[in-house]
Specification:
The complex is a heterodimer of chains A (224) and B (131). Chain A is of the alpha/beta class and 224 residues long. Chain A has helices spanning 10-21, 33-43, 55-60, 76-89, 105-110, 119-132, 211-221; strands at 2-6, 25-30, 47-49, 68-71, 94-99, 115-118, 136-141, 148-154, 164-165, 176-181, 187-188, 195-196, 201-207. In chain A, 33% of the residues are buried. A 3-stranded parallel beta sheet of chain B has the order 3-4-5. A two-stranded parallel sheet of chain B has the order 1-2. Chain B is globular and about 45 Å long. The chains are: A alpha/beta (224), B alpha/beta (131). Chains A and B meet through helix 4 and helix 5 of A and helix 4 and helix 5 of B.
């Protein structure tokens, strides 16, 4: 694919590096001459110096034959105009944009940016996930209307050594414990009498709503 | 949106026609050039804020606005604010200053009234010369 990246900041440069290693043909547009020459030194001659919201500059970057434009600057106004020019003036099939201010995320979606990457929301989401669901990791979402996912929960070693059979746990509705990986790495498919012990990794199917309750149940009750 | 000469003169002209104007600019000192009588009587309401942020647009009562104009000298900021006014707040009439001719044409085609001060001045100059 031919891909045009607007912005040679940290995000633009790391994307360019990855896409080059994947074998794509890349051009990077940035108005700052020194950012451009730094990029050219590390990745070969890819840069076009100029304003990525000017049609003439985007043309020089080969946007006419690009399959994708990725806007990565720290300014949402610049990213939006670069994407809209690509889409409406140059008929680029797909556009991706960094969204710096959460205020603009909905607008970018409404205006047809294919992948709006809402940085604030991503950071916020990761921090919330890390703080509120400590010990629980979402492995993968499952298809279907009830928004279930496959999760893994590590039972802390600090909890009691005795373990408790699954049948004694009051698991939230819609939750199924699918696999238990013991401390020594042995995996087993549990039945209702299987003991859950400190240090076990429990793999379960659960709903998003029940995640917190499941985590609480496993961490608390195995303590008793 | 925009407290440069253009925004100020448009605000003054609109109040002369009996309209009320809220004018947004991040630089408080820009409002020093507003006609003081109109400000005192509340026909021009200056608001220090950024027209590309929802909270500042809402402080300027964008939800009740009949017209939104983005008139700063930075095309891309005007385009962002104008599309927020149109798509997020459904302002009935949105006018956007875009000096770059290619983008001006594109946004006109996308249904935004895009004016270029350069085009307008050059048309007037040509008209004046041939009159």
């Amino acid at each position: 694919m031919h891909i045009v990246i607007v912005g040679a900041g940290r995000i633009g440069v790391s994307l360019a590096g990855w896409l080059v290693s994947e074998g794509h043909e890349i051009s990077v547009v940035d108005w700052d001459r020194s950012s451009c020459s730094a990029l050219d030194e590390s990745l070969g001659s890819l840069s076009v110096t100029g304003d990525g919201t000017e049609a003439g500059v985007l043309s020089r970057a080969g946007v006419n034959r690009a399959d994708l434009l990725i806007a990565t600057t720290s300014r949402d106004d610049v990213n939006l105009v670069a994407c809209q020019l690509a889409r409406h003036h140059f008929s680029v099939a797909r556009t991706v944009s960094v969204v710096n201010n959460h205020d603009h995320a909905q607008l970018f979606t409404m205006l047809g940016i294919d992948i709006p990457v809402d940085i604030t929301q991503i950071v916020l989401g990761r921090v919330q996930e890390g703080l509120s669901l400590q010990g629980l990791m979402r492995l993968m979402p499952l298809s279907g209307r009830d928004a279930k996912s496959l999760v893994a929960i590590k039972i802390p070693l600090s909890l009691g050594k005795e373990g408790r059979p699954i049948k004694d746990l009051s698991l939230p509705d819609g939750t199924l414990i699918s696999l238990i990986i013991a401390r020594d790495g042995n995996a087993s498919i549990p039945n209702e009498n299987t003991l859950i012990r400190a240090g076990d990794e429990v793999v379960a199917v659960t709903t998003v709503q029940a995640e917190e309750e499941l985590r609480y149940t496993l961490m608390r009750e195995s303590e008793e | 949106m925009g407290g440069d000469g253009l925004g100020i003169s448009v605000a003054a002209a609109l109040t002369e026609q009996g309209h009320t104007v809220h004018i947004l600019d991040p630089r408080a000192e820009a409002f020093g050039r507003l006609p003081p009588g109109e400000v005192e009587q509340g026909r021009i309401v200056p608001i220090v804020g950024d027209g590309t942020l929802q909270q500042d647009l809402e402080r300027a009562y964008i939800k009740d606005a009949h017209v939104f104009m983005a008139l700063t000298d930075i095309d891309t900021r005007n385009v962002l604010a104008a599309q927020m006014a149109r798509h997020l707040y459904q302002v009935p009439k949105v006018i956007c200053r875009i000096d770059d001719p290619t983008t001006q044409k594109m946004y006109n085609d996308l249904g935004i009234v895009a004016l270029s001060s350069m085009t307008l001045v050059s048309q007037s100059a040509v008209r004046a010369a041939s009159a």
